[in-house]
Amino acid sequence: MDSAQLKQQVTMAATSLAGRIGQSFEVAVVLGSGLSSFVEQLHDTVMVPYNEIPGFPVSTVKGHQSRVVVGTIGDHRVLCFSGRFHYYEGYDAATVSIPVRVAHALGVRSVLLTNAAGGISNVLRLGDLMVIVDHLNLFAADSPLRGLSDELFGTKFVNMYTAYTATLATKLREVGERLGLPMATGVYAGLSGPQFETRAEIHMLRLLGADAVGMSTIPEVIVANQLGIRTGAVSVITDLATETTTELSHEQVLASATRADAHLARLLAGVIEEGI
Ligand code: HPA
User: I need a labelling partner for 101 at 20 to 30 A (CA). Which of 42, 70, 146, 163 fits?
Assistant: First the structure.
């Protein structure tokens, strides 16, 4: 996508949303596949379906509610994207990250990204909430920053050395443990999908140091870092992507995500309540 078009889409979406839901949000939450019950934690909500936001792409995947939900948790104003755009739907990396740019335009300076992921590390169990502390970007050749002009969006050469804000990761872990949730910590490998991994790929990911694998989040993390947004991310472990797995489907991933969804909702609400 070229810079002018991206800027136009972000500006249109932000202007339209500002008119309907206001500005000065503190925190944005992006909910991944099968993960939508966090919106029930919000008070005084207003919802805007994505298809009513000019400049927004249209999500096509099952299990996505595809709407912006704004509301409050305690004193905190939260901008929640329920349903995300995936690279595997055919969007480029810049397009899937538009919600993060729109959130920034609406005042957001902290973002919590969530996803469903396959567990690779032997210590992970189904339903674990894995706080992401680093990632392996295996989204082939695309980057959400590719081809953008520096003047419009900040530096192209974004420092990713501390892509996940350490204090936010610690807080996610601490709050989760205090709430008695099944917490873990690890490295997320992001692949473009939509096919799941071969046995050899799972083996490779393990050797490379991945703890979990999924098909999202990384483009958004890159953009959040370009914009100076504090970034926290959590993977819900929906399947165990071990070399001995014989069966795996999107439906299975969604069903597991739904089972863990209430835990994720409590974690996010708990962290936001404390202030991030
Ligand atoms: N692999 C890739 N992406 C995923 C998986 C997986 O096992 N589970 C949920 N998203």
Answer: 42
Q: Which helix (H) or strand (E) holds 150?
A: helix 150-153
Give the whole-angstrom CA distance, residue 210 versus residue 134. 9
Average pLDDT in the 60-83 region? 84
Q: Of 105, 34, 115, 26, whose CA–CA distance to 70 is shortest?
A: 26
Query: How many percent of the chain have pLDDT more than 70?
Result: 95
Closest approach atom of ligand 1 to CA 197: 1
Residue 38 to residue 54: CA distance in whole angstroms: 25
Q: What is the CA 197 to chain-centroid distance, rounded?
A: 20
The protein residue with its alpha carbon nearest to ligand 1, atom 2, reads: 214
Return the domain boundaries, the chain.
Answer: 3-274
Indicate which residue's Cα is closest to atom 7 of ligand 1: 118
pLDDT value at 36 more than 60: yes
Atom of ligand 1 nearest to the CA of 241: 7
Fold of 3-274: Rossmann fold (3.40.50)
Whether 63 shows a pLDDT value over 60: the answer reads: no
| pLDDT tens-digit readout, 230-274 | 999 999 999 887 665 667 778 777 777 777 889 999 999 999 999
